[in-house]
């Protein structure tokens, strides 16, 4: 199995998760503070090389009725940039409520609001990637 990088792409941050070598579990890696598309892609390139990633999974925010809204359109444009920059398979995954699930988990773990803010995007990326890994292992 090859490693998969999971991305939770937002306007200000990108949460990053990586699969284990067997493709069973997702681990949070970091949260990129977005400065420019050039710097975003540079950091992703470093992580892709470091972890020898073979596939990129991007959480696609959809409206509750399944349609793509303005944020989803931004993510699809980002996906196009990824496809042009990296010669890897790029897959989108429905990420509805991933941030909500991450927030509930952190609240349940009694993590302070300040700490939650620091890790929420990374944890959302883990949630997105783990959902994908679970779906392909069945």
What keywords describe this structure?
alpha/beta; globular; nuclease; hydrolase activity, acting on ester bonds; 138 residues; 26% strand
Write the SSE topology.
Layout: E1 3-9, E2 13-19, E3 26-33, H1 37-51, E4 53-60, H2 70-85, E5 89-94, H3 98-108, H4 113-136
Parallel strand pairs: 1-4, 4-5
Antiparallel strand pairs: 1-2, 2-3
Helix pairs in contact: 3-4
Give the integer mean of the pLDDT values. Answer: 87
Number of helices: 4
- Can you identify the CATH class? Alpha Beta
In CATH, the topology is named: Nucleotidyltransferase, domain 5
Subcellular location: Cytoplasm
GO molecular function: hydrolase activity, acting on ester bonds; nuclease activity
InterPro entries: RNaseH-like_sf, YqgF, YqgF/RNaseH-like_dom, YqgF/RNaseH-like_dom_sf
Protein name: Putative pre-16S rRNA nuclease
Task: Walk me through what this model shows.
With 138 residues, the protein is an alpha/beta fold. The protein is 48% helix and 26% strand. The chain contains 4 helices and 5 strands. A 5-stranded mixed β-sheet has the order 3-2-1-4-5, with helices on both faces. Helix 3 packs across helix 4 (113-136). Could be a nuclease involved in processing of the 5'-end of pre-16S rRNA. This is Putative pre-16S rRNA nuclease. Keywords: Cytoplasm, Hydrolase, Nuclease, Ribosome biogenesis.
